[in-house]
Design brief:
With 776 residues, the protein is α/β, with parallel strands linked by helices. The chain contains 23 helices and 29 strands. Strands 6, 7, 8, 9, 10, 11, 12, 13, 14, 15 and 16 form an eleven-stranded mixed beta sheet that branches. Helix 14 crosses helix 23 and helix 16 crosses helix 18.
Length: 776
Amino acid sequence: MELNYPDSVKATQTRRYRICGIVQGVGFRPFVNRLARKYNAHGWVLNDSEGVLLEVQAEDSVLDLFIDELVSQPPPLAHIVDVKQVSATEVPPLYEGFEIRKSVDMNRTDTIIPPDTGVCEDCLGELRDPHNFRYQYAFINCTNCGPRYSLIQGMPYDRPQTTMRSFHMCEKCQSEYDDIDDRRYHAQPNACPSCGPSLELTDRDGTQIKTDDVIRYTIERLKEGAVCAIKSVGGFHLAVDATNTEAVNKLRKRKKRDSKPFAVMLADCDAASEWAFITPEEQALLESMQRPIVLLKRRSRAELEAVAPRNPDLGVMLPSAPLHYLLLSDPKLPMLVMTSGNASGHPIAYENRVALEQLNNIADYFLFNDRDIQTRVDDSVIRVIDLGDTEKPIYSFLRRSRGYAPFPIHLPYSIDPTLALGAELKTTISVGKANQVFMSQHVGDLKNDTTFQSHHDGVQHLEKLLSVEPERIACDLHPNFRSTRAALQNSEKHVVQVQHHHAHMVSCMAENGLSGKTLGVIFDGTGYGLDGTIWGGEFLVGDSRQFTRVGHLKPLYLLGGDSAVKDPIRVAVSLLCETFGNEAFYVELPSLKNLATERREVFIKMALGKINAIPTTSMGRFFDGISALMGVCEKVEYEAQAPIELEALLQRNYYTTEPLDYAIEENNGIFEINYQPLVKQLVGLLQNPKADLALLSRRFHSTVVDLIGAMCIKLANANSCENIVLSGGVFCNSFLLKNAYTHLKSLGLKPYIHRVIPSNDGGISLGQVVVAAHAE
């Protein structure tokens, strides 16, 4: 818009911009104000329901420089999704300066909710400065760092809309908050020792422990081997000295977690490098403001066997809160186990009272604080995977939560308001509106009332924050999932049941901006199929509206139904019976020696007679059976333990080798992977007393890579389809993901994988939203 100003200002232009993304609560308006002063630009900036609205006057060339710097160098926590010039509704005056205007009333919210982040370098410097009035203050934060999503109760993001509303800022904090040139300008959690939250230490009975230095007292107890429940940003952690094997084993016994690896926290990457190997990409991720758990290749140190038994990975995170830095300030306590503070099967505890009730038989001490958490948020878990010389390493999410939720996935099209409830395990919630799908933090497994209530609360909270009234509700096809039953029984909205593997497929399509005919390779544990059987080793062709099952794994059988999931030797027996028939009675393997003769005979009779034997095409269960057949893992304590320990034999070395035998057979136009030749060959190799299990695991994994390629070539040609998506929990296996992806590329196909959401059921709600939005 060119204005009719005097000749002295004839070159002045006025432009109005709409800026969308994470641009509220991150110091964006003060940043724009400083930028205006730098370029001597005039105008105004304000927050509204869509993000930030900016009107700026300057010479044309100056405006270009202004916007270039705004986009290229935003505040640390800002994430600009879109900057577009919009038309003004009135002729602007000739502004005399630049001002931050009052926010427009936000009766609806289209802006993005800021996630929780780690501690910035400025705050860390103050935390360690004895002359600073926030020295060793466990709740130090500023506009560039600290809690956000876990504290927010409503939008707009102002202090009265957070759990900090009960803390009234002292004069010094208020002056920072009001000073546009201060980095704590409008930092909603701003506080100091005289006016903000404080720590409290109690024993397991809730009796307060009197001490002059809560941090030092806690450190000393940890050094003595105590288990401490520590309230962090999004909930409680259970902590012990990770170098104290006795303490680690005590935590395992009390938490009833014999085998599953624990995550550890260290002060920095230099400290972490003494315990694990760290690539530059992994270091960048560890040091990012999101502060996820990163799965690193661990070093051979005896202390780590108790932390991560039978596993080449070590889950490492750096401090994500000021309190963590304080707890790791003693060189004699270099590494802490920091595992989710929850009772078995329950979500992470986040309220003081509930934590004391649930964890008092696990923890010896409780380090509480009086800053309430609105939304429980678990740690995110990521593995960095190198795809080879031609591409950058990728982030493979196993859990997308703190630091990333509820940041949206952007679609190349617009959808109506839609809510998706996820599946049953590793559940997340997704809300779709316009061209964005907002994914919640990890909710967990909906098998107990506490987690299911958390799921319900999460739905309401996310709808409120996003000002969304969903027109459709998406849920899984499985009739026994709690979320599905709740949707069908209680909803007055249009409910769309989405087949599990179709949702996986579409989640990967949506993340990669794909539409049109696509081939999906969907490998997971269990999913309810269109024919009422359990699927899980699927090849689908379709799009966001519909799909056709064009291939799958030959069915195997779960002896005793769900019991086989915890007892994979049952799956191994099923594989033997499908391969050898009655001769399975006489197969001798080291892994079968621990199976009592009577149980073995019962299992064989069940398998041969198909008595209480549930058919499934699950690739996850196939991995279970092979792991048990090899004697790697015959009894499961945690989900996917058998495949994880089978992959662990590869020691994070990703080269492929000679595959085992298999066959691809066509039956009524559907291709089926026949595993019988594989099982027969593997049994013969295992009968050698000197059988190398690591080599056999590599050959098995290489076989799965090979059969993916063989199936995709057949199906892509038959269906005139070159785009292929890989999804499902089995692709959390880094060997399989890396090699399947590179193998498909070498065959001239176009594979796509997950890079910003999990391939497991934690990402399925995204696909549900998109399928439901496209349903008739």
